[in-house]
Amino acid sequence: xxxxxxxxxxxxxxxxxxxxxxxxxxxxxxxxxxxxxxxxxxxxxxxxxxxxxxxxxxxxxxxxxxxxxxxxxxxxxxxxxxxxxxxxxxxxxxxxxxxxxxxxxxxxxxxxxxxxxxxxxxxxxxxxxxxxxxxxxxxxxxxxxxxxxxxxxxxxxxxxxxxxxxxxxxxxxxxxxxxxxxxxxxxxxxxxxxxxxxxxxxxxxxxxxxxxxxxxxxxxxxxxxxxxxxxxxxxxxxxxxxxxxxxxxxxxxxxxxxxxxxxxxxxxxxxxxxxxxxxxxxxxxxxxxxxxxxxxxxxxxxxxxxxxxxxxxxxxxxxxxxxxxxxxxxxxxxxxxxxxxxxxxxxxxxxxxxxxxxxxxxxxxxxxxx
Length: 370
Ligand code: SF4
Prior knowledge:
Blueprint: H1 3-15, E1 18-19, E2 37-41, E3 47-53, H2 55-60, E4 64-68, E5 74-77, E6 81-85, E7 107-109, E8 113-117, H3 123-126, H4 136-141, H5 151-164, E9 169-173, H6 184-195, E10 202-205, H7 213-221, E11 225-227, H8 235-241, H9 243-248, H10 251-265, E12 270-276, H11 282-294, E13 298-303, H12 323-339, H13 351-354, H14 360-368
Parallel strand pairs: 1-3, 1-4, 8-9, 9-10, 10-11, 11-12, 12-13
Antiparallel strand pairs: 2-3, 2-6, 4-5, 5-6, 7-8
Helix pairs in contact: 1-12, 1-14, 5-6, 6-7, 11-12, 12-14
Iron/sulfur cluster binds next to helix 3.
């Protein structure tokens, strides 16, 4: 498959998703990452978290069929693309010394990233000002995870996953607690504990702190990369979709935090999610993405996914209205990354290293092939 076909395939899988028979399950119910999706490996060896849809939802999203084959690990998408399912890791069957199943502490995201949510609540939910796409309490309420992961528990899971040979990097995200340090103290304790048992790259994600020295402290503890997520560069949409975060931090606060993160971790090892499909202005968004990339920050441009348990569960993303325009948008993103020398593959850690939710690697590869 050439770069054009791979980019198109990945964007279609991430946006339109796949139509599956009613009896197929296996999608995650909530938390960070591709909720409502199952991981497969594309023909280029990279993972994709495919939203599995049925009935009316499949029709509304124009999802092509995903059909099983005689090999339970191989599925065929749209009658011609063979996708290999990511196997369930064995460490999911273990329990921590204090009796918590490992899968409630951390999960395999994509095919090589161990991901955890340090604190499974957020100050904006308690105020009714949560981001409208967010589902952070859903997996907690379903009993699929625990509220807070201790350093000892996480270090145990890291050791087991690394010994099994199924992870190459680690990602720690967090809901924002009601504390001045926006949860960075907890992240520092977790990173410190992992560093005692593993040398794998660690990415951490948090809201921009008022005290930027906390970013240096994270690096000193052993973190390799930071995700500080603006979510959208269209301020009208940011205000509408992320009312709590919008009220907390103006864009300038993000710019200062990114600048510090780039100075500490290096170009491309500071990143920010930019969601696509919330009704944002396309040219404003691309201009914002260019400015972010020029500052050495990797824009992790990602199709927004309406998730059950979020306020936008029943919404229809704007990217669905014109798929060729959507592909064109990701090509422009790829050109920006190429022009700024920001190859996601060359960075150490972050959501893009899993790459299950975002087509930016395929967009970069397409642009580099032109
Ligand atoms: S900041 Fe927004 S997306 Fe993040 S956990 Fe809180 S409500 Fe959810």
